[in-house]
Amino acid sequence: MRRPRFTRRKWLALLAVAVLLVLAGAMGGIVWMQPRFVVRGLANLNPEVLFEVQTTRKIVALTIDDGPHEDNTPGVLDLLSERGVRVTFFILGDHIPGNEALLRRMKADGHELGNHLVEDRPSVTLPAEEFTRQLLVVDPWIAPEAEYRWMRPGSGWFTPDMIRRVASYGYGVCLGSIFPHDDVIHDPETLADDVLGRVYPGAIIILHDGDGERRNLVQTLERVLDGLDAQGFEVLTVSGLVAQGR
Length: 246
Description:
By secondary structure, the protein is an alpha/beta fold. The protein folds into two domains: 1-33, no CATH class; 34-244, TIM Barrel, CATH 3.20.20. The chain contains nine helices and eight strands. It has helices at 8-33, 36-45, 73-83, 100-108, 128-138, 160-167, 188-198, 217-230, 238-244, and strands at 49-50, 59-67, 88-91, 112-115, 150-151, 172-174, 204-208, 234-236. Strands 2, 3, 4, 7 and 8 form a five-stranded parallel beta sheet that branches. A three-stranded parallel beta sheet has the order 1-6-5, covered by helices on one side. Helix 6 (160-167) links the parallel strand 5 and strand 6. Helix 3 (73-83) packs parallel to helix 8 and helix 7 runs parallel beside helix 8. The longest helix has 26 residues, at 8-33. It is globular and about 50 Å long.
């Protein structure tokens, strides 16, 4: 049997596929590692979205998404109270019913509440009307008198329309610059090592509350807070970071 001949067109097609695969792998690596130059580039391209604060002071913001959770959040709040640390909780509307006391405790302890809409899903998939509805479900829990009010879109993707829409309700869009992928990695030591190995002045750290393997959040926080303290970092809310980093 004759072997199939590879024409110039076929070779070029194979080369194009190979290049695309390499680029896809490189992009995947960049998304996973979040190198600082990429974060800085995204921040420069999207000045209306908060990724980090440019400062030389050793201050960072710590944010916790997807709460409150009836089993896990009390331990998180106990730890933060013991350490005298205030953070920003981006809360989900689906988790509010039955957990109102936890939200009141967050406020009483001096933590900042941010809007994470209702569902734990990519916010860019929501029609405009549904996006607005979900924003307003959580809105009553966000301090109306605050100088800064923050919304974090699900999965981190945003659009210009989303930015304009939340701004009309007094919100800014807050993402972050250090995310240790605690949605797929659950070992507290590994997560803390990742955060502490990449931390820098003005960084915004993202962690997640919840059930299942996210119950390790308290252990992760213990290690992260110990490490940040050892490196001389002060932990603030997002608004505190913005205010002090001016």
